[in-house]
Write a structure and sequence with these properties.
Structural class of chain B: mainly alpha
Number of helices of chain B: 11
Strand content of chain B: under 5%
Largest interface: A-B, 26 and 33 residues
Distance between the termini of chain B: 21 Å
Helix content of chain A: 10-25%
Structural class of chain A: mainly beta
Number of helices of chain A: 4
CATH superfamily of one domain in chain A: Single-stranded right-handed beta-helix, Pectin lyase-like
Largest sheet of chain A: 14 strands, parallel
Largest sheet of chain B: none
Distance between the termini of chain A: 38 Å
Order of helices and strands of chain B: HHHHHHHHHHH
Shape of chain B: globular
CATH architecture of one domain in chain A: 3 Solenoid
Shape of chain A: elongated
CATH class of one domain in chain A: Mainly Beta
Number of strands of chain B: 0
Helix content of chain B: over 70%
Oligomer: heterodimer
Number of strands of chain A: 39
Strand order of the largest sheet of chain A: 1-2-5-8-11-14-17-20-23-26-29-32-35-38
Strand content of chain A: 25-35%
């Protein structure tokens, strides 16, 4: 931790020095009918620390390689049209800033990851307030450290999963901040692989073909206040440790194979104050252990949670379960997870001493969801009178539902969590 | 002549206290449900549960009661120069139409509040078909028994079987044979019960169908395709036709 903050301070110092440096250094202005008239020319004549101002206009350029430590700033929304010919800007030096550009028309390529902005092994980069339109990959960062990706709008027109790339793609990075971006129309909105100590916050990822957010082998990252809306299969996160997810909204992932979030082999995470609204399955937990799910809202999902038998020692505490077709479903007849202090709208118990905690324990697995887990074909009986009857019977005389899958202290009223965006 | 009897039966029923109460209760429920829910699909689903429960029950029991209550009137008609089948047809159609109209009128508040949607139209269509099916079954059960109590009893048994026991059997079969590919078998099985058929047809029109997942895909492919749709509607019409034809056969040979 100390190391990181020391790093941060050194970064700030570097940036600050940089600023002083640039103010004394050259400022190169680029416009359609002045010299230099292209960004590539400007970079060629610049030196480390210069500032290149791209004035409003239309630049037909591709494969612009930033091999100097410069700041590239767009003035009046200049457009760089790559014209389906290659990458947009590729950055191979540290301390580069790219701000206020519009980059568009990146072609689909099956051999290389053509992208709007590509960053290779460069530290301390800042990619800010850009618009990337019709991209294959939007922003592609590999092997880099300490970069900020802020306020970008990335739009693609992905048609099939195999012929599309990711909006923001991070590979083998650390200490990256991805804030306030808006991503749509790609394969995965935000994709992370081998990324650590990074934070992903306040992004809006929608209508991507596969996942709104997808990460693997990425330990120790924070995901805060993001919204993942109407993505093909929701969000999938795998093979990672020490993940913190707070205040995110997972919504409208509604389809045959959609999840609010799918967790596979995730260890030691915290999921707090998230909202799961209108997903086929809110949380799907497979082989994930020691995850604390606290104060989340599950509203109008098909299944609020589907916890497979290989997930253990998870804590499900203080959540609200409202209007879900099924609350909890599991393929196991035993339970190794803790359920406590949740609000279940299907709870029919009473609270005599009025301490807000129901006096009768609640069993969140219904008989029908258990039958369904064993023989999925019985879904044709959904909403049949008999299903309600069976569930009611099992509630009165429990005999099949796992004895230990029980909330001993169900809340009588919905818990009001700190801050909650009203799902729209 | 048949038309004259039909008209009489129909208007007589529409004025009856029972049908008016039926309209009132349905209207109250459908108004309440759609007024307090903000999602029209949810309204349709809630109403579906109610419709699948109430319509078969009311059609069967009121159908039987009406058959026996109008026994004297029927006997009187049969002394006139009209054929037995035209009397039966008129009575059956009169009752089914009256109950169908009652159901449509009862569900009207929901349609008005939520506007006309695919779900609503399906709900109305299924309600009307189920009314015809179960009125037919009621007439079959009643014409098979001279005694009122046995006729009504049989109607209740039919309802219990269709609404509850049949589904238990289906679930049991699915559960017991879960290791085998069951999709086709289930499709055939469900078409043996008009209530299930109606329920599945409507469910597939709502977004609940997403819950069916991969297993449901084959059902969706079948019931969602135009052929499957035609077949299941044909099955429902058979459910109207067969009890009616059987009942008319028995009625024609019946001793009064």
């Amino acid at each position: 931790m100390n190391l990181i903050s020391a790093n941060r301070i050194s970064l700030i110092v570097i940036l600050f020095l940089n600023l002083i440096h640039t103010s004394s250094a050259k400022e190169i202005r680029v416009c359609n009918d002045c010299q230099p008239s292209t960004l590539s020319q400007a970079i060629a004549m610049s030196e480390d620390g210069d500032m290149i101002i791209l004035q409003s206009g239309y630049y037909k350029e591709h494969d612009i390689v930033v091999d100097k430590q410069v700041s590239i700033i767009g003035e009046g929304n200049p457009v760089i049209d790559v014209g389906l010919k290659g990458n947009g800007i590729s950055i191979i030096k540290p301390n580069v800033l790219v701000k206020g550009l519009t980059i568009k028309n990146i072609d689909v390529n099956y051999l290389s990851e053509l992208s709007g902005i590509k960053i290779d092994y460069a530290e301390n980069c800042v990619i800010e307030d850009n618009i990337l339109d019709l991209t294959f990959f939007g922003i592609y960062i590999s092997g880099s450290k300490n970069c900020k990706v802020r306020g970008n709008t990335i739009t693609g027109v992905a048609k099939t999963e195999s012929s599309s790339g990711n909006g923001i793609h991070l590979w083998k990075c650390s200490e990256i901040q991805v804030d306030n971006n808006r991503i749509s129309g790609h394969r995965d909105g935000i994709y992370l692989e081998f990324v650590s100590s990074s934070s992903i916050s306040e992004n809006y990822s929608t209508q991507n073909l596969r996942y709104g957010l997808h990460f693997m082998f990425s330990d120790g990252n924070n995901y805060t206040s993001n919204t993942f809306d109407k993505n093909g299969a929701g969000v999938a996160v795998m093979y990672s440790k020490n993940i913190v997810m707070k205040g995110n909204t997972f919504q409208n992932n509604w389809g045959d194979a959609s999840y609010g979030i799918l967790l596979k082999e995730l260890y030691d995470g915290v999921m707090e104050n998230n909202v799961f609204f209108k997903n086929t399955i809110g949380i799907y937990l497979e082989g994930s252990n020691r995850i604390e799910m606290i104060n989340n809202d599950f509203i109008e999902n098909g299944w609020a949670m589907n916890i497979l038998g290989n997930s253990e020692d998870n804590k499900i505490i203080g959540n609200n379960f409202v209007n879900n077709t099924f609350d909890i479903s599991s393929n196991s007849s035993r339970n190794y997870n803790l359920y406590s202090g949740n609000y279940w709208d299907k709870y029919k118990g009473y609270d005599i001493n009025r301490d807000g905690v129901g006096d009768v324990p609640y069993r969140p697995v219904s008989l029908f969801s258990l039958v369904l887990e064993k023989s999925p074909e019985s879904i044709v009986m959904l909403r049949s009178i008999i299903v309600d009857l069976l569930d009611a019977m099992e509630k009165i005389v429990p005999s099949i539902i796992p004895e230990t899958l029980i909330d001993e202290q169900p809340r009588i009223t919905k818990s009001e969590h700190d801050k909650h965006k009203q799902p729209s | 002549m048949s038309l004259k009897i039909l008209k009489y039966v129909f208007f007589d029923l529409m004025r009856s206290r029972f049908v008016l109460t039926y309209i009132g209760i349905l209207a109250f429920i459908s108004f309440g449900v759609s007024y307090f829910s903000n999602d029209e699909m949810k309204t349709v689903l809630t109403l579906l549960n109610i419709v699948l429960f109430i319509i078969p029950l009311v059609s069967l029991i009121f159908g039987s009661i009406h058959f026996y209550d109008s026994g004297e009137f029927t006997e009187f008609l049969l002394t006139q120069p009209v054929s037995r089948s035209s009397v039966f047809r008129a009575e059956y159609l009169g009752l089914s139409l009256a109950l169908s109209l009652a159901v449509v009128a009862g569900l009207l508040p929901a349609v008005i509040i939520d506007r006309l949607s695919v779900g609503n139209v399906y709900l109305l269509g299924i309600s009307v078909i189920l009314t015809f099916v179960f009125t037919g079954l009621a007439y079959l059960a009643s014409s098979m028994n001279i005694e009122k109590v046995r006729g009504i009893g049989l109607s209740i048994v039919i309802w219990l079987f269709m609404a509850v026991i049949f589904d238990i059997i289906v679930i049991l079969l699915i559960y017991l044979f879960r290791d085998y590919p069951l999709e086709k078998f289930i499709i055939i099985l469900t078409s043996l019960n008009p209530i299930d058929l109606g329920r599945i047809l409507l469910l597939l029109k709502t977004d609940v169908s997403a819950l069916m997942g991969f297993t449901g895909a084959s059902f969706k492919n079948f019931f969602g395709s135009s052929i499957g749709m035609l077949l299941s509607i044909a099955a429902l019409f058979l459910w109207v036709l067969i009890p009616y034809l059987l009942a008319i056969r028995i009625f024609r040979r019946k001793n009064f």
